[in-house]
Amino acid sequence: MNVETKVKTTVDLVIYNAAETITCVGEGMTEIGVIENAWIAIKDDKIVGVGPEEEITNKFDLEKSVSINATGKVVAPGFVDCHTHLVFNGSRVEEYAAKLSGNVDENLEELGITTGPNRTIELTRHASEEELFQQAKKRMLSMLDYGITTIESKSGYGLTTESEIKILEVGRRLGKETPVDVLNTFLGAHGIPNGMSKSEYIEILIKEMIPEVGERKLAEFCDAWCDEGYFTAEESKQILQAGLQYGMKSKLHADAYSYIGGSDLAVEMNMVSVDHLNFTPVEVMEKLAKSEVTGVLMPALDFAVGHKQPFEARRMLDLGMNIALATDLCPACYTESMQFVINLACRLYKFTVEEAIKAATFGGARALDLDDRGIIQTGKLADLQIWDIPTYKHIAYELGTNIVETVIKDGKVVVSR
Ligand SMILES: [Zn+2]
After folding, report:
1. How far apart are CA 227 and CA 261, in angstroms?
2. pLDDT below 50 — which residues of the chain?
3. How far is the CA of 212 from the centre of ligand 1 (A)?
């Protein structure tokens, strides 16, 4: 008898029998594609198969692969944190603690506590690249423990060519020397440096800083702070257009403390993302919903600063906007946990659990213009996390628990708790 033997593909890693696999594949923000008892086969850095046991064992040779038993657990894509200010020196803990007991900026000045971004800029300018690297690395490895496998990192605490480049170089080094993928955003337009007029600074941004960052290929994105007291929509447009000339895609901090047309500009320029959106009018949400632009919402920042105008997430989701959730890790919002962000999004902003998970994975990837991650599907990067919970809904229910047991980045186990 002539038995045809099919040669099976060998794989490096197999995750088997997960109670639920959250693929995040599907239409809209609510469809998260839950598969029960799935097996996932991984070769090199890619997912090569997702399906029932029989399908995977028939197709692949699992003999020599490492296997992870996920019985009773949940497998999800790694979180993609699309908005952080990861690289900075020191902290603003004194300011935060003093404000908790009712102090405002003026009292703090009298107490000798320097406040706001200027404090961080001062500290960051004077730190060495190595100091910045070590501090950011510690934060980033903690974020990896919380399931974050891709991070966007903004400059913007230097505001001089030299110090902005130093921050971006640290971002590049973090990407090389840790398992996490780091995408850099040039945010020289985070504020206006002391002792300089805004027009002088814009000139430096456009003629000196952006060309330098661009030629050194130090950033994937260019960003600006469009708000009252910062940059107007017209100024933001000039800055972002200069970035585009050097291949940096546009992002924007908009409508965080006032509405001056930032979100409209995001639609007009078809930006990758527009972030904050506390003061965005409904008419602009409707325009955003018809566009490809992703709205990035950051519940932890609003929580940390006690924001007076909560963003209207429910309305944005109901209108059908592309939404991402991000930590906004920065000296004013010190969280390394996307799970905490999900807790807040569900409880305070009426996200469904499904929407929150999708916004923190698929949504984050879309806000970084990445289509190779954020979902569990054959051909995508094997960036995965295993949660030690019986069903995915526990992620919203367990407040402050780190539910992550295992993190896999590029097909390798990088966290095992
Ligand atoms: Zn920000």
Report:
1. 9
2. 1
3. 22
Domain boundaries for CATH 2.30.40.10 within the chain:
9-77+375-416
User: Can you read off the two tokens belonging to residue 174?
Assistant: 């973090």
Name the E strands within 4-65.
Answer: 9-10, 13-22, 34-43, 46-51, 60-61
Provide the percentage of residues in the chain whose pLDDT is more than 90: 92
The binding site for N-formimidoyl-L-glutamate consists of: 157
What burial letters (b/e) apply to 243-254, b meaning 16+ CB within 10 Å? beebebbbbbbb
21 CA distance to ligand 1 centroid (A)?
Answer: 32
Question: What's residue 152's pLDDT?
Answer: 98
Residue ranges of the chain that CATH labels 3.20.20.140: 79-366
Distance set, CA 285 to CA 78, 79, 236, 263 (Å): 28, 25, 20, 8
Question: Please, which residues have CB within 8 angstroms of residue 234's CB and are 6 or more apart in sequence?
Answer: none
Two tokens, residue 167:
């921050």
DSSP string, 165-231: HHHHHHHHHHHHHSSSEEEEEEEEETS--TTS-HHHHHHHIIIIIHHHHHHTT--SEEEEEESTTSB
Tell me the pairing of strands 181-189 and 322-325. unpaired
CATH class of 79-366: alpha beta
Contact (CB, 8 A) for 364 and 80:
yes
9-77+375-416: CATH number: 2.30.40.10
311 CA → ligand 1 middle, Å: 15
Note the pLDDT of residue 5. 61
